Amino acid sequence: DIQMTQSPSSLSVSVGDRVTITCRASQNISSYLNWYQQKPGKGPKFLIYAASSLQSGIPSRFSGSGSGTDFTLTINSLQPEDFATYSCQQSYSTPWTFGQGTKVEIK
Amino acid sequence: QVQLQESGPGLVKPSGTLSLTCAVSGDSISSPNWWSWIRQPPGKGLEWIGEIFHRGSTNYNPSLKSRVAISVDKSKNQFSLKLTSMTAADTAVYYCARKGGLITMIGGTFINAFDIWGQGTVVTVSS
């Protein structure tokens, strides 16, 4: 199985801050990497596919980058509705696997 | 818009069988998508359980393969999960999700992603 490791596990930030979350794959997955946002009591919301392509309807303050084994999710000018947990997921090979999640909390 | 809704018992006895159903609205279960089950134990990350295509093809996580069965009911536009020999380690929030295919605008890369999710249902294993 491909292991996905995110860092940090959590971070405390303020509205307007820039947030960077890292995801590392245990082997080369090219650009087969997706990002999701999850809020308490709700199912995950799909944000970014193929490492850097924004899903329709997702604000442009979200962006993704990377390829191979190292990937980044960036949120520019964090908004109140962005406080949530973010997870990466590889779609290179089954079993599909997710990172453990990064919780973005209010400072 | 496409919506998924999980249903089933919230409490399962140890060694029992979990049965969950996911009702699909706004899309046909026969569309060219895969339909998945994913779970999240308390305080842990998401774990993919398995998926089914409407023609009956399935893929399962090897870690659960011996205990899992996913089926589809086209007449009801829904799909279901059965997980046998439940233990406390199976306590989790269970989600159903649609796995769709997307193509990047630059490079034309085809990739699959879980683009629609249900809200999840809490399942506790306890006597």
Kindly describe this structure.
The complex is a heterodimer of chains A (107) and B (127). Chain A is mostly beta strands and 107 residues long. Chain A is built from no helices and 11 strands. The mean pLDDT of chain A is 97. The model of chain B has no long low-confidence stretch (mean pLDDT 95). In chain B, the strands form 2 sheets. In chain B, strands 2, 4, 5, 6, 9, 10 and 11 form a 7-stranded mixed beta sheet that branches. In chain B, strands 1-3-8-7 form a 4-stranded antiparallel beta sheet, with no helix packed on it. Classes of the chains: A mainly beta (107), B mainly beta (127).
What does the secondary structure layout of this molecule look like, with pairings?
The complex is a heterodimer of chains A (107) and B (127).
Chain A: E1 4-7, E2 10-13, E3 19-25, E4 33-38, E5 45-49, E6 53-54, E7 62-67, E8 70-75, E9 85-90, E10 97-98, E11 102-106
Parallel strand pairs in A: 2-11
Antiparallel strand pairs in A: 1-3, 3-8, 4-5, 4-9, 5-6, 7-8, 9-10, 9-11
Chain B: E1 3-7, E2 11-12, E3 18-25, E4 34-40, E5 47-53, E6 58-60, E7 68-73, E8 78-83, E9 92-103, E10 110-117, E11 121-125
Parallel strand pairs in B: 2-11
Antiparallel strand pairs in B: 1-3, 3-8, 4-5, 4-9, 5-6, 7-8, 9-10, 9-11
